[in-house]
Design brief:
With 292 residues, this protein is mainly α. Among the domains are: 96 residues, Orthogonal Bundle (Arc Repressor Mutant, subunit A); 102 residues, no CATH class. 64% of the residues lie in helices and 4% in strands. The strands form two sheets. The protein has a two-stranded antiparallel ribbon with strand order 1-2. β3 and β4 form a beta hairpin. The protein is flat and about 85 Å long. The N terminus and C terminus are likely disordered.
Length: 292
């Protein structure tokens, strides 16, 4: 029987979650804030249960709408609306268990969470419980031994204390390693998501077809992010230069290495005169006709 694991203290959440299309659509719905809160409560519950994203209480009883409404302290109708929305967007799946009951699951839970770290925590908990039971057995053995005789419990008490301190130090180091590994993975996923959003915006705005996976493109974006620029700064630069350059001889420079290079801050703060931009477009088109 699986029980809620109190040792799971965190789950991974992308810093770009509120740029996700599904969340953006949910934010336009009635009770949007409550629905989003229900989503975060689901993620936290999945982490505490540590059951690979399957919502089964104690490893036996599937969570129902009514149970979740009670646990989340939200109206039943709101929870049902949230679950229906999550299922429609593919954020959860309802599967049928062998006994015919419906079970709520989060698809690809292992992909988004540090499952190896969670497995280590489960193993640490198992070892801790086993050690505690062994101490209880020794304590029971000591209680039936004469106090005038030096027992194994008395003789090894100091050694056990030292061993306990060593085990605690090891567990602390493992937990730190797990947190650091998870942070590195989370930062890497967040960066790739930022690259995707930026390049998608550029391609849509300029009619280009650049790849977010390009090493050169990622290098330029990483350099600007490291300098403290935000996603909105990238969108502003793309929009400004697209407005200024599309339809001119400079349109060919609507590319990542130019837009996100060392002149990025200058582009960001440049003033765009829409009238001049339109005149430039007209002159360029006239020149093209004359050349023809």
């Amino acid at each position: 029987m699986r029980k809620e694991n109190p040792d799971i203290k965190w789950i991974k959440i992308s810093t770009n979650i509120f740029s996700d299309e599904k969340i953006l659509l949910i934010e336009q719905m009635p009770d949007a804030d409550t629905i989003i809160v229900v989503w975060f409560k689901l993620l936290a519950l999945a982490g505490r249960e540590n059951n690979c994203g399957v919502f089964v209480m104690g490893g036996k009883i599937p969570y129902t709408d009514e149970m979740l409404a009670t646990i989340f302290r939200r109206p039943l109708q709101t929870v049902r609306l949230a679950l229906q929305t999550f299922e429609a967007f593919g954020m959860i799946e309802i599967i049928e268990s062998p006994n015919g009951s419906d079970v709520i699951t989060i698809p690809n839970w292992e992909k988004h969470q540090n499952v190896d770290g969670m497995d280590k925590i489960r193993e640490q908990t198992r070892l801790r419980v086993a050690k505690h039971r062994e101490k209880q057995r020794l304590a029971l053995s000591c209680s039936v031994t004469s106090n005038d005789t030096e027992t194994p419990c008395n003789a090894t008490e100091e050694e056990e204390e030292k061993e306990k301190e060593k085990e605690e130090e090891k567990e602390e180091e493992k937990e730190k390693d797990n947190i650091n590994d998870s942070q590195d993975e989370s930062d890497n996923e967040s960066f790739h998501e930022s690259c995707r959003l930026i390049i998608d915006f550029l391609n849509n705005r300029a009619g280009t077809n650049y790849k977010a996976s390009s090493k050169k493109t990622q290098s330029c974006i990483h350099a600007r992010l490291k300098e403290g620029f935000t996603l909105d700064d990238f969108y502003i630069v793309i929009d400004k230069k697209a407005q200024e350059w599309i339809g001119t001889e400079y349109e060919k420079f609507l590319r990542p290495e130019t837009l996100f290079g060392t002149k990025f801050e200058g582009y960001l703060n440049a003033k765009i005169n829409p009238k001049q931009s339109r005149q430039s477009n007209i002159q360029n088109r006239v020149s093209a006709v004359d050349s023809w």
